């Protein structure tokens, strides 16, 4: 692909050949955040721009806050893979993908520098305003692909984004004791938990059995919304945080 004018004014352009048309000319209504999971920014950029990799994203945010655009927003970048949110499975057609340079879990979850997060906030605000994207549709890759993906990880500062008006967030309820549900449990409370997660958007079967899938979705939820403890066990802090998020959704009426 030849070069193109960036959609975000502050972006440099490094075209990636890995893209196609958005299905049904979808306008993006999700912003999907990733970490690269690589310690070398240059290696990550090379991967995202080489045809063999078959992966790309619309944007790449360096640790120092520089932003690179790799695919025009009008086109479908290849970052989400097999994924699901609120009944939709072609998340690439519906989203703007942002890769954030960070070593991630393989590197022991390094902090995201302030300059990088400031750039992510500015980029999300710009895309969000241009497309009218709802706050609750600024998501983690792990939200749309639980178990399979863990990025951008539990160290990603969703609370800081929320302070800047980006994303849907409530202060997580503190981890404490109390009743909890875990793998192997079954019954109405498990069904209620599954229903709440499904209503929020996660891909979860409402069976009343605390399955491997349920455990994975609970862990994905914790990674984004209750990052102090990511263990896939639905303790009261997890359930109360989920309940508070749901009741603060604009579509919850
Ligand atoms: Zn990802």
Concise synopsis of the structure shown:
The chain folds into 2 domains: 12-163, Lysozyme-like; 180-252, PGBD-like superfamily/PGBD (Muramoyl-pentapeptide Carboxypeptidase, domain 1).
Please characterize this protein's 3D structure.
- The protein has helices at residues 41-49, 91-94, 114-131, 141-144, 158-163, 188-200, 212-225, 236-247, and strands spanning 11-13, 19-21, 30-35, 59-61, 67-69, 75-77, 95-100, 138-140.
- It is an alpha/beta fold.
- The protein has two domains: 12-163, Lysozyme-like, CATH 3.40.80.10; 180-252, PGBD-like superfamily/PGBD (Muramoyl-pentapeptide Carboxypeptidase, domain 1, Orthogonal Bundle), CATH 1.10.101.
- The strands form two sheets. Strands 1-5-4-7-3-8 form a six-stranded mixed sheet.
- The chain is globular.
- Bound molecules: zinc ion.
- Zinc ion is lined by residues 34, 141, 149, 151.
- Major sheet: arrangement of strands: 1-5-4-7-3-8
Helix content: 25-40%
**Average pLDDT, all residues:** 96
- What CATH first level of the largest domain would be assigned? Alpha Beta
Strand content: 5-15%
- List the ions, cofactors and other small molecules found in this model: zinc ion
- Annotation field: number of helices: 8
Global geometry: globular
Spans of 5+ residues with little confidence (pLDDT < 50)?
none
Number of strands: 8
Biggest sheet: strands, sense, closure? Answer: 6 strands, mixed
Fourth-tier CATH superfamily name of the largest domain: Peptidoglycan recognition protein-like
Radius of gyration, in Å, reads: 18 Å
CATH fold category name of the largest domain: Lysozyme-like
Alpha-carbon distance between the termini?
A: 46 Å
Give the domain tally.
2
CATH architecture of the largest domain: 3-Layer(aba) Sandwich
């Amino acid at each position: 692909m030849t070069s193109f004018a960036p959609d975000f004014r502050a972006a440099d352009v490094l075209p990636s050949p890995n893209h196609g048309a958005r299905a049904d000319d979808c306008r993006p209504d999700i912003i999907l955040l990733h970490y690269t999971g690589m310690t070398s920014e240059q290696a990550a950029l090379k991967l995202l721009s080489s045809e063999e990799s078959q992966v790309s994203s619309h944007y790449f945010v360096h640790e120092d806050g520089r932003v690179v655009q790799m695919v025009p927003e009008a086109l479908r970048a290849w970052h989400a893979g097999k994924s699901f949110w609120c009944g939709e499975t072609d998340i690439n057609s519906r989203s703007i993908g942002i890769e954030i340079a960070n070593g991630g879990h393989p590197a022991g979850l390094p902090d995201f520098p302030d300059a990088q997060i400031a750039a992510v906030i500015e980029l999300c605000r710009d895309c969000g305003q241009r497309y009218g994207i709802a706050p609750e549709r600024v998501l983690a890759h792990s939200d749309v692909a639980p178990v399979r993906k863990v990025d951008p990880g539990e160290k990603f500062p969703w609370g800081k984004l929320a302070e800047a008006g980006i994303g849907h967030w409530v202060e997580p309820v503190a981890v404490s004791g109390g009743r909890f549900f875990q793998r192997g449990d079954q019954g109405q409370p498990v069904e209620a938990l599954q229903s709440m997660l499904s209503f929020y958007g996660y891909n979860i079967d409402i069976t009343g059995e605390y399955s491997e899938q349920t455990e994975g979705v609970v862990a994905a939820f914790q990674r984004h919304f209750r990052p102090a403890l990511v263990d896939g066990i639905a303790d009261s802090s997890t359930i109360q945080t989920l309940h508070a998020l749901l009741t603060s959704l604009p579509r919850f009426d």
